[in-house]
């Protein structure tokens, strides 16, 4: 809004003859001694943008257009200059001939400009059309040298790119990742709404631990202890009382001092909870959701996949996600000489071995109850096992869920078994006295899913401004 108003002020000054401007003089002009904008060209330029670059096609030859975007490249060849202009939708070529080319020689790459010109045919292989112009308005200059090369000709480390993330977003590989993330979020929401889930938003500042108190960020809240929520677990369970099926897509926080390519202290989680569903039912929901995300991205983000150099993984519709039990995994590990027995947690090295046997997406089900949170229900035919699952992509855990306990007395006993104080959960347990239905749910890390579908080795690549133990800014 500020830039647009200033821009109109400049144009109006040119048209009306501002005392501080020299009307009728072609070339760079500065309005009223201010340095926020420069205009190049005649005094009758209005520069009201008419099209996105992606809207240009050969059928528009001879049409006048106004485009706005960033200078990705600038080349002067004798009396002709060529500007590669990009906006968020695409890229085109702008051609400047004759005396006008000399006036524009000072344009900097990555400066933002508006161009008024005529669509014409082109001999360039990379463009369907080009724009012939003599009128350019410089809306904002890029100061050189830039901290990173947004075109990607000069490679920068991920830390340097994250330090200058806004500029990194002009790199088409980076931009493509976040366009795909946008599409994934739309699919997640629309699919869950279609399945009769209601979107909720739960508190992120809480007074007690959601899942037992581990890895919590704590702080003083007006003289009381408070924490950043590590999940919406307790709230989403309570909401099944009245809303039956709920979901949330939001950021949560875990104070894990982990320095890996898949851990963050602030992460985006996709959570559901559904009354009258068992863990098999919510596994089905999760599988449909992941399939729909992959299918949509594969078909609707072809340009983005080309830009990142990776095809979204898909599994055949006729091949459901494999369901592998914990006990089956232990057996597979023992066969290759791993020292692991029933009740042992599966290490990263174990999951990598299992992932080789089960490539792609698969569910790892029926974990030992003692390895799961207090709210997970046991299996009726074997109380040592739980009605729980993880969704894996190879060794990488994407989601964890299961059937929940809904009897308050059993919950109190389970809390005591896990050395947790039931009194700290009384607000939550009270709601179980009001007719809590049987329910199941899961939480899935959106960032990890995006790393899978984009082929990113480091989850920080798919997060705008990632937070980890070493990164608190920008």
Description:
By secondary structure, the chain is an alpha+beta fold. The protein has 2 domains: 2-140, Nucleic acid-binding proteins (OB fold (Dihydrolipoamide Acetyltransferase, E2P)); 163-462, BirA Bifunctional Protein, domain 2, CATH 3.30.930.10. Helices cover 28% and strands 26% of the residues. An 8-stranded mixed beta sheet has the order 8-12-13-20-19-18-15-14, with helices on both faces. Strands 3-4-5-7-6 form a 5-stranded mixed barrel. It is elongated. The two termini are 24 Å apart. The relative contact order is 0.10. The model is unreliable at 1-38 and 40-46 (pLDDT under 50).
Q: CATH superfamily name of the largest domain?
A: Bira Bifunctional Protein, Domain 2
Largest sheet: 8 strands, mixed
How much strand content do the residues show? 25-35%
Secondary structure class reads alpha+beta
The CATH topology assignment of the largest domain is BirA Bifunctional Protein, domain 2
